[in-house]
Amino acid sequence: MKNLILIFVLISFAFTTYAQNTCQAYLPTNKGDVWEMSTYSPKNKLTGKVSYELLDKVVEGNETIYKVKNICYDKKEKEIFENNFEAKCKDGVFEFDMAIFMSGEMMQSYNNMDLEINGTSLEMPSYDSKIGTNLKDGNLDMKIGADGVMPIKMSILMTNRKVEGKEQMTTEAGTFDCIVMSQNIKTKMMISIESNTKDWYAENVGLVRSESYNKKGKLTGYSVLTKLEN
């Protein structure tokens, strides 16, 4: 009997440890994977692209860190901004570095300036989360400056994040089973701009589609996954 109890305890411990060390990643997970998001106006005109590459995948104990490079291009495919960010799986939870939301359009005017960035990680839900599940807020604070110039402060705050459901989404890159999320976004730099977004994420793929709306519910633009190579 003692041996059976010991075996049961060991199995339970192994299962718990496995669960803590695995999570559902919302990006491609093999080093060298590349993918691309294209952005469009409400009238379906291309406004830019963002290419991504998984530079490295590092496993440290119960944590897996994904190191990603992204390059933003304008509608003429001219490079306007390059940035690195991290995502990680820890204790069964996947989260993004908020730096992923530094878009090319946002940073184009400040490409040659110094950036000081502070922010939280953006926690993602598991794919089997129930509709209506609430998610933690996220925020990003930036200070943009150059020698002899007063720094410009910018902040992004994500609130009211929740799971809306599950849908299948088809793009140029393929057809994907997605979890759908929504959130409110407040961007502040000199003035405050409030918007709402609806996002479709697929496991081991990441963002498949994102739609942005103004406070009146009018579509202001959208992004779509247009390339995935792994």
Walk me through this protein's architecture:
This protein has 230 residues and is mainly beta. The chain is built from 2 helices and 13 strands, in the order αβββββαββββββββ. The protein has one domain: YmcC-like fold. The protein is 10% helix and 61% strand. The chain is globular, with a radius of gyration of 20 Å.
Please provide a brief summary of the model.
By secondary structure, the protein is mainly beta. The chain is built from two helices and 13 strands; from the N terminus they run H-E-E-E-E-E-H-E-E-E-E-E-E-E-E. The relative contact order is 0.16.
Strand content: over 45%
Specify the structural class. Answer: mainly beta
Low-confidence runs of at least 5 consecutive residues = 2-21
- Return Rg in Å: 20 Å
Q: If you consult CATH, what is the topology?
A: YmcC-like fold
Q: Mean pLDDT score, rounded?
A: 84
CATH class: Mainly Beta
Taking the alpha carbons of the first and last residues, their distance comes to: 50 Å
Order of helices and strands: HEEEEEHEEEEEEEE
Can you tag this structure with a few keywords?
single chain, 230 residues, mainly beta, YmcC-like fold, 13-stranded antiparallel sheet, 2 helices, 13 strands, 61% strand
Provide the fold topology.
Blueprint: H1 2-21, E1 34-40, E2 46-60, E3 63-74, E4 79-90, E5 93-97, H2 104-107, E6 114-119, E7 121-123, E8 138-146, E9 149-171, E10 174-189, E11 191-202, E12 206-214, E13 219-229
